[in-house]
Amino acid sequence: MIRYTLTCPDQHEFEAWFSNGDAFETQRADGLLSCPVCGSTDIDRALMAPAISTSRRKENRLSAGDASADARGDADDAPRLAANVPEPTAAPKEVINALRKLREHVTKNADYVGKKFAEEARKIHYEEAEKRGIYGEATKEDVRALAEEGIEFHPLPTLPEDKN
Ligand SMILES: [Zn+2]
After folding, report:
1. Does 34 lie in the same domain as 95?
2. What's the domain range around 16?
3. Within 10 Å of residue 151's Cβ, how many Cβ atoms?
């Protein structure tokens, strides 16, 4: 399967999966592809953006949001992460409020473990510690290792007030 980013003449972009490049050409020629926004069947492939892994994006965003980190040596390698925290029940309308509530939810329902995040997440994953929500900091290496071990975690959202 390959994923193409497609555009219509109005520059609406959308993504679609095809079994191969020929399948895309055939479906396009048959008018089977249409823009989900305007319905145009005049579809073409968009220019490809470079592939960026999700974890790389997270790392960049998290370290970029913490300007004071450089002064603390390896702290710029320390995105805040959470694991095993139950999903919030209500979805607030406004995005910042939603993120703030998510963070409050995490900090209320999870134990802060600081730089031991990776160690604790691993213990919980391998059932060497009580299953509970935790949050804390981890290095890029920790993040990569946890992901490779299949341990679930999420970056905590950065809020506007964090940048003050
Ligand atoms: Zn369109």
Report:
1. no
2. 2-45
3. 16
Calculate how far, in angstroms, residue 31's C-alpha sits from the geometric centre of ligand 1. Answer: 14
Q: How many residues does the chain have?
A: 164
Give Cα 164 distance to the centre of its chain: 24
- Tell me which of 4-13, 91-100, 104-113, 149-158 is least confident: 91-100
Cα of 28 vs centre of ligand 1, distance in Å, is 14
Statement to judge: residues 152 and 74 lie in one domain? yes
pLDDT, greater one: 97 or 118: 118
pLDDT in tens, 52-101: 555 544 444 554 444 444 444 555 566 677 777 776 665 445 666 777 77
Going from the Cα of 40 to the center of ligand 1, the distance in angstroms, rounded, reads 6
83/138 same-domain check: yes
| Domain shared by 88 and 20, yes or no | no
- The amino acid at residue 15 is E
pTM of the model: 0.41
Domains in the chain: how many in total?
Answer: 2
- Encoded tokens for 65: 């949001």
